[in-house]
Amino acid sequence: MAFLLVVIYIAFIGLGVPDSLIGSAWPAIHTELNIPVEAVSIITFLISGCTVLSSMFSARILNKLGTAKVTAFSTAMTAASLIGFSFAPSFLFMIPLAVVLGLGAGAIDSGLNNYVALHFKASHMNFLHCFYGVGVSLSPYLMSQALSNIGWRGGYRYAFYVQAVIAILLIISVPLWKKTSSSEETEEEKETSLTLLQMAKKADVRLVWIIMLATNAIEYACGVWGSTYLVSEKGFEAEHGALALTVYYVGMSIGRFVSGLISNKISTWKRIGIGTFILAPAVAIMLLPLHGAVSVIGLFLIGLGNGSIYPNMIHLTPHNFGKEVSQSIMGSQIAFAYIGVMLAPPAVSLISGFFGIKIYPVLLAVLYVVMVIALKCFVNRLKKQGKYDDNV
Q1: Which CATH number fits domain 9-178+188-384: 1.20.1250.20, 3.20.20.30, 3.40.1280.10, 1.25.40.10?
Q2: Least confident of 170-174, 185-189, 288-292
Q3: Is 224 helix (H, G, I), strand (E, B) or coil?
Q4: Virtual torsion, Cα 70, 76, 79, 84, nearest 10 deg
Q5: For the segment 262-292, what is each residue's pLDDT rounded down to a tens digit?
Q6: Residue 296: partners with Cβ closer than 8 Å, 6 or more residues away
Q7: CA angle, 179 as apex, 176 and 185 as ends, to 5°?
Q8: 3-state class (DSSP) for residue 32
Q9: Of 192 and 261, which is predicted with more confidence?
């Protein structure tokens, strides 16, 4: 079981590796290919949209083939997409690669989150998403090194090498998953499936959807546009902007790692509250007209505070809604999280097209306020229903 957990952690590194590449590489990509800076939103929209579709419809494939095979194959899909990006001669060539990347990522995320939620403790859920942070931190670092030497295409090839090794490890480990999970399948079969319409009728579920959408919108608005904002508004060089994005993802990884460490001493709801509290000064720093180096600190604090909210909300699903329907609601949460991922970058692109990239911090502040209001309303409803448990 311990070795399998290590394999799952490494698999989540593979989930994170592609996610931060486009944001750190885009200042160089749009210049070389002579395309508008706003075109990045088309790529991120396609990746996120296909991830949503894959998350929603992956249950049948996962039940038929198993989490191990689907995760291994999907990781191989993302690796193939990365090497394809490195050879892309034009923007149009990137479009089908974005589709492949999104479909692979959705299957990995749905399968592993569900598997860990069913079979492991809350600390492991936080550590799992911490390892995702390792993946998204590694990519901009590799890209910054490539931009200083061989260009953005080399950065995508570096990421491909990492992803290919992870895919090979997952393929080799398939028999281990079968031995570990075969005795636990009956637990999954006891759950009751809910349709999307049934869930949408529940006010509590709708509030969770808003929370998940907002926290992931903040995450990806920073991941996709953080580097471009520093380059365009703060005068950073492209490689320095990519390196600053590494700092942001390191903050996210630290936030999730610390949340896992203190999970036995501080309740999940309190950890969510701490993350929300840290976000307030972080967003304020981004709003103020300060030196670019201070903005990097703001990005770090956003990653630190926001990083633990998503995994902790995932962990609370069985406690908030009941184990019998947790799998259905969890799948919908992941889908809405990716809707936030899908909508945030093009929203930044659209609005900044009218007002300039200087509006970017204001959009982060709006998303933060929406998330805080939804969290407050959700907690109040749970308290009225007697479902709020501050000891979880």
Answers
A1: 1.20.1250.20
A2: 185-189
A3: helix
A4: -110
A5: 888 888 899 999 999 999 999 999 888 877 7
A6: 230, 244, 247, 248
A7: 120
A8: helix
A9: 261
